[in-house]
Amino acid sequence: MRRRSTPVPRDAVHHPVFARFYARMSVAADLKGGVAAHRDELLTGLSGRVIEIGAGNGLNFAHYPGAVSEVVAIEPERALRQLAARAALRAEVPVDVVPGTAEALPVKSEAFDAAVASLVLCTVRDLPRALAEIKRVLRPGGELRFFEHTLAPGRALATAQRAVDRTFWPLLFGGCHTARDTVAAVEDAGFELGVYRSFRIPDKGAQLPTSPCVLGVARRSAVVDRSAEQD
C-alpha cells in the first residue's frame, strides 16, 4: 500500500518573483539611494529585546547597536527569509529569523522592549490588526520605530498613489500600498506618537508613488488598562 506524503504547508505570503527583485533593488537603494543612513537613524539608541516585523532580506541587521541583546526577526516570505537568515549570521547582535505574519506574531505578549517596522506596513493585509499585534508584544512603555512609505501631503502625488494602489502596484510589488497614512494608523492603534519626520527617496528628481516616506517613533503607554482582560 502506498503511503501518502504529508503536504508541506504554504507560506502565508508567497511572492518569489518580487522577492528576487526586492533583494537586488534594496541593496542598490542602500548603497546608492541613501537608505542605509535612514536605517542607522531608525535603529540608533535601541537596547534590550527587539522584534522586527517583516525583516525582508535582513538589511537592518548590520545597523543594530550593541546594546540590543536579541532581535527576533519575523519574515513571512520564504525566499527573503532565507536571505535574512544568512544576514543574521553576519550580524554583530544575536538575530533569530522566524516565519510569521504581522497580523499573528508568533511570540508572547509584552515580551519586547522595542519593535521595528521598516518598509513593511505598506504590504500587510490588515494594517490595524498588525499594529494591534505590535502593541500586544511590546512591554508597557516599549517603543515602535517605523520607517515606512506614506501618503503624500501634495494632492497630485497622493492622487497618483491612490490610483496605482487600486490597479497594478500591489500586484507587481509584493502587496505594497503606497497611499496608507502611516502616522494616522499608528495613532489610531493607540500608540503615543513621538518625534517623526517626512521625506522623499530620492530627495531630488522624479518622484514615484513610493517616494514619500516617514521615519519616527511611537510608544505603547506605560499605563496598561487591565479591566478589559478581567471581563
UniProtKB/TrEMBL annotation:
Protein name: Class I SAM-dependent methyltransferase
GO molecular function: methyltransferase activity
Domain of life from the UniProt record: Bacteria
Enzyme class label: transferase
Keyword Mitochondrion: no
Methyltransferase type domain sequence ranges: 52-145
Species this protein is from: Streptomyces atroolivaceus
Keyword Methyltransferase: yes
UniProt keywords, alphabetically: Methyltransferase, Transferase
GO aspect biological process, one term: methylation
Protein EC: 2.1.1.-
Cited SUPFAM superfamilies: S-adenosyl-L-methionine-dependent methyltransferases
